[in-house]
Amino acid sequence: MPKILSIHNSHPFYVLKFDNGEKISILKSSFAKRKLNPQMNLSDEEYADLKKQSFFDRGFYKAMKMLAIKDYTEKEVYLKLIKEKIPEDVIDEIIRYLKNRGYLNDERIFNYYVKLFFEFKKLGSYLVKKKLWKKGFCGNMIEEFFSNNIQQIRNYDLKNMQYWLEKKLKKQRVQELSLLEKKKIFDFLIRKGFPDEIIRDEILD
Q: Are residues 110 and 94 in the same domain?
């Protein structure tokens, strides 16, 4: 039976040292719910439960520190906790806990990133979609937005393309460019995520 040798205060955790050489950290709020004392023997079941609590507490504390700085998607939190070596089943519990209390809400921050990518970074719709996928938003959420806002997205593409054209060309007109220069502009706009048919139809034809 594992035996607690010492309990050390390391805010916001208590660190429990065991006779098997392991150290287990749990939040003070979790510690307060358990009757734990130095020289106390734990059953194997109690010890396993304490280790799981430690994973939960460490993952929860890490997630809350992240979310205190800015909003993250569920996937971003998940991947960060995987790097912290938190077991996947515990991560699922942490994410459910955070969602139930409103700390994690992909729908709430989806519109923020749409506005950021379209209106502030001036990206094309292909690249915006790619970045939303990379952020970890639900595929259905992304596809629904793009399907229900076709005209708005086209307007974003046209407006943002014009922004980059003016920035690249300055006072030149597209019609004055050589074929090579047009190709460079075309490739630049493709990298910015604009659909090639819109570039051809609206700019380069």
A: no
- Which CATH number belongs to the domain containing residue 11 in this structure? 1.10.10.10
**What count of Cα atoms within 13 Å lies in the side-chain half-sphere of residue 114?**
17
Q: Which residues pair with 3 in a beta bridge?
A: 41
**Number of domain units in the chain:** 2
Higher pLDDT pick, 131 / 177: 131
Contact call for residues 105 and 72 (beta carbons, < 8 A): no
- Same domain for 118 and 90, yes or no, is no
Neighbouring residues of 138: CB distance < 8 A, sequence distance ≥ 6: 106
Q: In terms of DSSP H, where are the helices of the chain?
A: 28-32, 44-69, 74-83, 88-100, 106-115, 125-135, 139-148, 150-169, 179-191, 196-199
- The domain in which residue 62 lies consists of 4-100
Q: What is the pLDDT of residues 35-46, one digit of tens each?
A: 899 999 999 999
- Percent of all residues in the chain with a pLDDT value above 90, rounded to a whole number: 80
Q: Are residues 38 and 61 in the same domain?
A: yes
Cα–Cα distance between 167 and 170 in angstroms, integer?
A: 6
pLDDT tens for each residue of 27-67:
999 999 988 999 999 999 999 999 999 999 999 999 999 99
Q: How far lies 108's CA from each of 72, 97, 100, 153, in Å?
A: 10, 17, 14, 20
Neighbouring-strand partners of residue 7 = 16
